[in-house]
């Protein structure tokens, strides 16, 4: 404690140094604490599930690397084939339609869950009971369990809520339970407020292509995550032999739950930001080491006196290290405030809705912050302490009347630190510039369709509201007619998917000279069901043939339109118009005639979606699904959202439309995670640039201070001030050049890494690196010029008097 008191006394005696060091440490440690809390919350968090290390998601991977969901019959086969799972469950996050007397219907996000759901995840309702086995039978699933947050916000945390009823999807459901607060886990089921038991009809249980569910398992005790894969390999082989059109080349993979919660792009970007935040801390450490070295020179006489009075070298080292650690721990404490502010920004922007339950400064984060603070103090304080403890007593005491000087090794170390700062700053600046340039180019690319002035809404159509296929078609017909009548609407259409976040519903396609047995070698194409005005509404150009006729009927000859890439893939060098195209569904090939070819389109928003390469468009009237996307083009798209809702209410007041917004709004929402990553990287780059500028300025100022007598003599002997200015500038820019050479190599390596993890966004290019190198040159030139100008103003008389 005595060392700590002495350290505090010395730090209070140098308020300018202490404040600058605390600010530098707070920023350096703060951004690292924030990034670590993000990585811990997103990538290392096991969620509210007991023994979460035993939880895995089962993934089906096609030969083309596409992930596939599961059907009920596949769940049954996996249960029968494997013994490594303690339990298995399927789930599907889906919108429920909530109806209340006197109010417009609204959608509430819910989750359909199969048996063993609560056993698999190891969580029971906090109030009430879980689902009973018989409630998973058709016609007996009229029960619901609420989320904790919805129970509090909607029912006022009423403990007597059990037994009350809700009108959902046309059914009257009885509330039987409320989940614990921790189960409101945004990484797993964001904004999910209801759980209902999943049940299947006899036809669905045997429908092999009814793949709409995620599959999770809890490993049996003592089993590794890889164990089920070995047992499921023979199952995949048998499925491929019996149903080659659906299973050829399919393999099963087990993904630990914490890896399944964040996509691969999110994981890579998070780890990258954590690593780059370490660069900021290294620059801060180099800066502080420089400050400590300069301070050690001014304290050389103090150390000499203490040595003369009997202090050992170890005592001097210990005292200086104590000062550094005290300083860094104090800076770490301030850094927690910086981390808290940074986390608030991240939480407001993160896709899961800003839940602080995921990203938080908790005890593990505090412990890591403490360890980083201590390590930082040792890192920037050790070398200056070693150098300061080697003070020559006689030389230091003689310097009482002559300014302090330092050895050549001391200067070289300080110069090396500045070179390192410049290199690290250039890496951060280069990465930020690369990401920004690529992002702008991505937004300016030709997506193949006109996304301007387009508004989109989503509309699930529960079977309870339209129980027959004919009723569904009639509903869609009335809805599209009402959309056409909306004021200001130029075009309106319905579709099962839109090129905003990417298409879904891939099926194997074949020419008429191919058979389903060739499925492993055939291509898959996304199938999109559209109304006839779809292409005009989205501005997708027709390249060949014709579009769907407005009067096409359900019993009209089956026709399709394909995109340009699929036409070239199936009929290279041929005219695809009039050709027959087969689509595999439920093990059978359904044939249609190609009547048109349209331009390829790309998702307007999703940066991590695979490119939408092959697409087949079918008339909605010939294959109507239980949900559609509503899309209109108008001069003022922002005002059409509520109009779409009213259009649906006029056709059926019990069906609410979910407004997705304009295409630009949807794109901004989907891209906000990467936009946030770019902003964070920009912040790192700005901090690195500022710290590097301070480092260069400090070193050159110290050079000017120590060589002021030399500069005075040069001026007294007739040297031009400009010559002295250039001498100092040359010294500083030589340091910049050394950092530039190393930094360009590191920045290029980072740009290549960014291109590898975000191939649709980042691209390695020398132009951003050259631009940031020029910016850094201007900053370094300014940081050198200010002390160099001071060198030209040294009074020769004062310099000679000092000598």
Structure description:
The chain is built from 25 helices and 22 strands. A hairpin with a 5-residue loop joins β1 (55-61) and β2 (67-68). The radius of gyration is 34 Å and the shape is elongated.
Report the radius of gyration as a whole number of Å.
Answer: 34 Å
Span between termini: 43 Å
Oligomer: single chain
Major β-sheet profile: 6 strands, mixed, barrel
Assign an overall shape.
Answer: elongated
The tally of strands reads: 22
Structural class label? alpha+beta
Low-confidence stretches: 351-356, 400-405
**H/I helix tally:** 25
* Portion in strands: 15-25%
Strand order of the largest sheet: 3-4-9-6-8-7
User: What is the number of independent domains?
Assistant: 3
Portion of residues within helices = 40-55%
Q: Write down the overall mean pLDDT.
A: 83
Relevant terms:
6-stranded mixed barrel, 3 domains
What is this structure, in a nutshell?
This protein is an alpha+beta fold and 803 residues long. It is 50% helix and 17% strand.
């Amino acid at each position: 404690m005595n060392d700590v008191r002495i350290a505090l006394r010395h730090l209070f005696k140098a308020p300018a140094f202490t404040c600058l060091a605390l600010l530098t440490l707070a920023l350096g440690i703060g951004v690292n604490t924030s990034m670590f809390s993000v990585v811990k919350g997103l990538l290392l968090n096991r969620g509210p599930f007991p023994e979460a290390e035993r939880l895995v998601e089962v993934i089906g991977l096609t030969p083309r690397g596409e992930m596939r969901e599961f059907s009920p019959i596949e769940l049954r086969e996996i249960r029968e084939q494997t013994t490594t799972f303690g339990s298995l469950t399927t789930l599907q996050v889906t919108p429920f339609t909530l109806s209340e007397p006197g109010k417009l219907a609204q959608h509430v996000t819910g989750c359909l869950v199969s048996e063993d759901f609560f056993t698999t995840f190891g969580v029971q309702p906090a109030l009430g009971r879980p689902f009973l086995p018989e409630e998973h039978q058709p016609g007996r699933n009229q029960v619901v369990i609420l989320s904790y947050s919805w129970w509090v916000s909607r029912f006022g945390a009423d403990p007597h809520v059990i037994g009350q009823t809700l009108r959902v999807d046309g059914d009257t459901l009885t509330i039987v339970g409320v989940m614990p607060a921790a189960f409101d886990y945004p990484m797993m089921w964001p904004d999910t407020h209801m759980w209902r038991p999943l049940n299947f009809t006899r036809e669905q249980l045997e429908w092999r292509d009814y793949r709409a569910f995620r599959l999770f398992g809890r490993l049996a005790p003592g089993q590794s995550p890889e164990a089920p894969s070995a047992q499921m390999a023979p199952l995949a082989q048998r499925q491929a032999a019996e149903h080659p059109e659906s299973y050829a080349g399919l393999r099963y993979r087990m993904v630990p739950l914490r890896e399944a919660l964040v996509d691969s792009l999110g994981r890579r970007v998070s780890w990258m930001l954590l690593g780059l935040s370490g660069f900021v801390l290294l620059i801060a450490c180099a800066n502080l080491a420089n400050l400590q070295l300069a301070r050690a020179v001014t304290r050389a006489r103090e150390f000499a006196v203490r040595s003369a009075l009997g202090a050992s070298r170890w005592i001097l080292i210990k005292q200086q290290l104590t000062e550094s650690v005290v300083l860094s721990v104090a800076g770490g404490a301030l850094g927690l405030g910086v981390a808290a502010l940074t986390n608030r920004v991240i939480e407001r922007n993160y896709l899961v809705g800003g839940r602080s339950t995921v990203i938080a400064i908790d005890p593990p984060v505090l412990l890591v912050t403490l360890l980083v603070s201590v390590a930082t103090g040792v890192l920037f304080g050790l070398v200056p302490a070693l150098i300061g403890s080697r003070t020559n007593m006689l030389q230091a005491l003689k310097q009482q009347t002559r300014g302090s000087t330092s050895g050549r090794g001391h200067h070289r170390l300080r110069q090396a630190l500045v070179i390192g700062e410049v290199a690290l700053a250039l890496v951060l600046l280069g990465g930020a510039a690369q990401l920004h340039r690529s992002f702008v180019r991505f937004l300016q690319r030709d997506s193949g369709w006109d996304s301007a002035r387009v508004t989109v809404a989503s509309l699930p159509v529960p079977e309870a509201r339209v129980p027959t296929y004919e009723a569904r078609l009639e509903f869609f017909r009335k809805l599209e007619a009402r959309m056409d009548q909306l004021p200001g609407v130029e075009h309106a259409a319905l579709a099962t998917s839109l090129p905003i976040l990417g298409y879904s519903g891939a099926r194997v396609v074949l020419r008429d000279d191919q058979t389903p047995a060739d499925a492993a070698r055939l291509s898959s194409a996304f199938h999109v069901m559209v109304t006839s005005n779809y292409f005009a509404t989205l501005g997708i150009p027709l390249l060949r043939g014709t579009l769907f006729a407005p009067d096409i009927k359900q019993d009209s000859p089956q026709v399709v339109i394909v995109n340009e890439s699929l036409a070239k893939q199936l009929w290279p060098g041929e005219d695809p118009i009039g050709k027959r195209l087969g689509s595999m569904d439920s093990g059978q090939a359904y044939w249609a005639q190609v009547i048109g070819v349209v331009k390829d389109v790309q998702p307007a928003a999703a940066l991590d979606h695979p490119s939408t390469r092959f697409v087949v468009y079918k008339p909605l009237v010939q294959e109507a699904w239980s949900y559609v996307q509503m899309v209109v083009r108008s001069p003022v798209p922002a005002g059409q959202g509520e109009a779409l809702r009213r259009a649906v209410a006029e056709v059926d007041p019990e069906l609410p439309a979910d407004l997705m917004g304009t295409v630009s709004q949807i794109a901004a929402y989907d891209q906000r995670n990467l936009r946030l990553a770019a902003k964070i990287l920009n912040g790192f780059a700005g901090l690195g640039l500022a710290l590097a500028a301070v480092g260069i300025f400090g070193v050159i100022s110290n050079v000017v201070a120590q060589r002021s007598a030399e500069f005075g003599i040069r001026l007294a002997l007739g040297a031009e001030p400009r010559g002295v200015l250039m001498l100092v500038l040359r010294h500083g820019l030589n340091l910049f050049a050394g950092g530039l050479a190393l930094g360009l190599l590191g920045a290029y390596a980072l740009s290549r890494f960014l291109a590898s993890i975000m191939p649709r966004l980042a691209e390695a290019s020398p132009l951003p690196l050259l631009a940031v190198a020029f910016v850094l040159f201007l900053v370094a030139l300014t940081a050198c010029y200010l002390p160099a100008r001071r060198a030209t103003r040294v009074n020769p008389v004062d310099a000679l008097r000092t000598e």
